[in-house]
């Protein structure tokens, strides 16, 4: 398998790649001849995604909150597939709850999944990128980091941290040839958002009325932005946060 580097096939890791935005990102990569390893917790969904995407896609069932096992995971990937060219930190969890009812444990759990595991995985992958002097990391933040959204305090803290980490990582790593950027999706039509918005017409109207384009985005819109950051087209771009939100973050 190691000979693939000669044929120019790149290898990407997409966390949370079996559903939602991660699924769309993985599909975009495979369509563009990038071997894609999707990591997630749900083996059934991972298997279904792999079947849909074909032989350029493989999966690893792994719980990224298991920080001590992450170095071994990355070692295994490099041994199996050769070098890692692209890392997309997409896996994340959300929780809607009134501010005063969020427990310390709940807050910590979201920070563990959305921040600590992103750091640990990035650190280990970067160690394997440094000898090659190249690589692209794309983090996924959220509208919650651009402005205040009610009842998502832990999620907001985690996604704001991701944007700060993106800038810090870019400054640390870009001199060594590793670019780090971030995509901040607005309101995108996924199963998760559909459930949230269709049961809450008032919230849906508010979302659409402050989105200048007047509609929800598609997962493919986010995937296209991630693909751009991952490839040669973005060779002089690092440390940026790109809202893909129909203008929502600047909407009135």
Automatic annotation (TrEMBL):
One of its GO terms (molecular function) is oxidoreductase activity. The keyword Transmembrane helix does not apply. It comes from the Bacteria. SUPFAM superfamilies: NAD(P)-binding Rossmann-fold domains. Gene3D superfamilies: NAD(P)-binding Rossmann-like Domain (3.40.50.720). It holds the Pfam family adh_short_C2. InterPro entries: NAD(P)-bd_dom_sf, Sc_DH/Rdtase_CS, SDR_fam. CDD domains: SDR_c (cd05233). Keywords: Oxidoreductase. PROSITE patterns: ADH_SHORT (PS00061). Belongs to the short-chain dehydrogenases/reductases (SDR) family. NCBIfam families: PRK07231.1, PRK12826.1-2. This is NAD(P)-dependent dehydrogenase, short-chain alcohol dehydrogenase family. It comes from Pontibacter lucknowensis.
